Amino acid sequence: MQVAEHFCDKGCVITGAASGIGLAVGEALLAAGAAVFMADVDAAALETAAHRLAAAHPGRVQAMPVDVTKADDVRRMVEGAAARHGRLDVLFNNAGIGATQPIETVTLDHWRRIVDINLWGVVHGIHFALPIMRRQGGGHIVNTASMAGLMPFPFQALYCATKFAVAGLSESLRFELADEGIHVSVVCPGHVASAIFGKPLAGGLVDLPLPPDAIPADEAAATILAGVAARAGIIALPEGSRTLWRRYWSDPE
Ligand code: NAD
Asked: Which intervals of the chain form a coiled coil (predicted)?
């Protein structure tokens, strides 16, 4: 089945939808004919993005400021989207933050923050979407982990801890829920051009700059939707990440 056919008229929710991968997936879903409920903690960026997409796709875009660390925000997002569209076909738990820094620069508060966003944000989404998807007899749950959820990287202990957790959670649920028609995929990007690079980090540090091998977000979105439509488990985006794969596999020690 063509990707556009698969997503046409589907009700989709995306967290982290104001920027980067989430925004590009939202655009690709709209181009495929889906209705998209955009959620992000950055209310100003969300409003700008949603306004632009709604102008191009009238009647198919809704937006709600949501902090994925807050269970009640996520419950309102999932239930609101399902009520509006009558179904919840795709939940893309994508919101996340990066952290590349030496472990000694990290406080317990920083640990809690990244676990709250990158792991609890995904858990909240799954928790509130499952009863709805079970009632309607199926759906897609798509969680964003990272290449750093499949292999370790130095100076990424916090990030890897959360992304390995998301990958394990997703793969485990994939087996558990498949018989109910609920398909779970985990997206594991290498480097995708987005605002995640160069962001301020804990301890006054700044995250890595945009790597030269980063692939464009719309290219990543096309691969993600093709993977979800094909009910893939792990959707790795190695095209732009060959240096990462090579470094790990040629030097696993
Ligand atoms: P991005 O910074 O462009 O987008 C992330 C979005 O998440 C932002 O709009 C931000 O406001 C939102 N967000 C952050 N905290 C939130 C919260 N508490 N509640 C709701 N929204 C929140 O970055 P991106 O690269 O598009 O990242 C999307 C996902 O992809 C993340 O989970 C990230 O870890 C993952 N990822 C990205 C790359 C890459 O190379 N860009 C690689 C691997 C994994």
From this structure: none
